[in-house]
């Protein structure tokens, strides 16, 4: 009879350890999910920043290609800069 009681106690102890291990794994899983979500958000921000910088580079290349000293060229540069500022404002509003 004592052997059965010992076996039962052993099974109960192992069950308790499995339950504790399961809870620890569930907590770790939740932490990893939260970290994954945070990393995805950071990646999205980085992608958006990359796109904005690419657009600015394109605009700067365009402005540099039409660089000159005439009034018409200066007007074009000013309009391009205004467009870039307007686009930046729109991007900021879209992020909100």
Percentage of residues assigned to helices = over 70%
Number of helices: 2
Beta fraction: under 5%
Q: How many beta-strand elements?
A: 0
Oligomeric form: single chain
How large, in whole angstroms, is the Cα Rg? 31 Å
Strand/helix succession: HH
Distance between the terminal alpha carbons, to the nearest Å?
70 Å
Structural class: mainly alpha
Write down the overall geometry: rod-shaped
Mean pLDDT: 88
Low-confidence stretches: none
Sketch the major β-sheet: none
Task: Explain how this protein is built.
There is one protein chain. The N and C termini lie far apart (70 Å). The protein is mostly helical. Helix content is 93%, strand content 0%. The model has no long low-confidence stretch (mean pLDDT 88). The longest helix is centred in the middle third of the chain and has 64 residues. The chain has 2 helices and no strands.
């Amino acid at each position: 009879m004592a052997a059965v009681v010992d076996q039962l106690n052993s099974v109960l102890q192992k069950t308790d350890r499995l339950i504790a291990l399961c809870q620890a794994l569930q907590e770790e899983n939740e932490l990893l999910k939260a970290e994954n979500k945070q990393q995805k958000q950071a990646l999205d921000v980085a992608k958006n920043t990359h796109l904005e910088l690419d657009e600015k580079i394109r605009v700067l290349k365009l402005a540099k290609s039409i660089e000159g000293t005439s009034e018409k060229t200066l007007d074009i540069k000013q309009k391009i800069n205004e467009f870039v500022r307007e686009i930046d404002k729109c991007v900021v509003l879209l992020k909100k």
